[in-house]
Amino acid sequence: MTATPSRMTRKTAATREAIIGAARELLDEGGPEALTLPAVSERADVAVQTIYNRVGGRDALLMTVAERAMEANRVYLDAAYAQPGSAVQRVLGAAEAYVRFAKERPHEFRLLTQTSSGSPAFERIADLLDEQTGRLADAIADGIAEGAVRPDIDPRTTATVLWAAVSGVIALSWRADRHRADPDVLLPLLAAAVGEGLLNPNPDEQKCR
């Protein structure tokens, strides 16, 4: 029989969740710069020392928020890969889900893509990237097996290129100079170019092999 958590344990967990929730709200409203311990303390209505006791310092708080962002990003992609359709449709659906996450949760997206190598979360985020590109590579490999995707490309390398291209287009929206661009304009062009580049010009011939 599973023991019921004590009142103190439940209160400690609730306080920790309130702190993390406040940090995520501040990140959504103002980016990483807005996520300071005094601001989180005020938003969560707890003492700064309580933040240290329940989560840790600012780096630990950022890492925790990044981990939650990783979980949310996975939910977006899980839903995309679960959709019925061809391998090519899964590739395009995953790209659309990735872009949707970036648009709906921009500061969390930036936190995942701009974490420095000195951050404790760096390796965990790198693991997420490996997972994402691995799933994308599997879909591309399925497309090759179906005959829809050209057989002369390496799925893993192609998945990395696609991830980098989409991330790069999204990053243009963060620029403050004349090179700033609207992803909604550029991404359809990228999708069209990628689609043309991936598709097998002789699908029937590939199926017969």
Automatic annotation (TrEMBL):
<dbReference type="InterPro" id="IPR001647">
    <property type="entry name" value="HTH_TetR"/>
</dbReference>
<dbReference type="InterPro" id="IPR009057">
    <property type="entry name" value="Homeodomain-like_sf"/>
</dbReference>
<dbReference type="Pfam" id="PF00440">
    <property type="entry name" value="TetR_N"/>
</dbReference>
<dbReference type="InterPro" id="IPR050109">
    <property type="entry name" value="HTH-type_TetR-like_transc_reg"/>
</dbReference>
<dbReference type="InterPro" id="IPR025996">
    <property type="entry name" value="MT1864/Rv1816-like_C"/>
</dbReference>
<keyword id="KW-0238">DNA-binding</keyword>
<dbReference type="Pfam" id="PF13305">
    <property type="entry name" value="TetR_C_33"/>
</dbReference>
<feature type="domain" description="HTH tetR-type">
    <location>
        <begin position="13"/>
        <end position="73"/>
    </location>
</feature>
<dbReference type="InterPro" id="IPR036271">
    <property type="entry name" value="Tet_transcr_reg_TetR-rel_C_sf"/>
</dbReference>
<protein>
    <submittedName>
        <fullName>TetR/AcrR family transcriptional regulator</fullName>
    </submittedName>
</protein>
<keyword id="KW-0805">Transcription regulation</keyword>
<keyword id="KW-0804">Transcription</keyword>
<feature type="DNA-binding region" description="H-T-H motif">
    <location>
        <begin position="36"/>
        <end position="55"/>
    </location>
</feature>
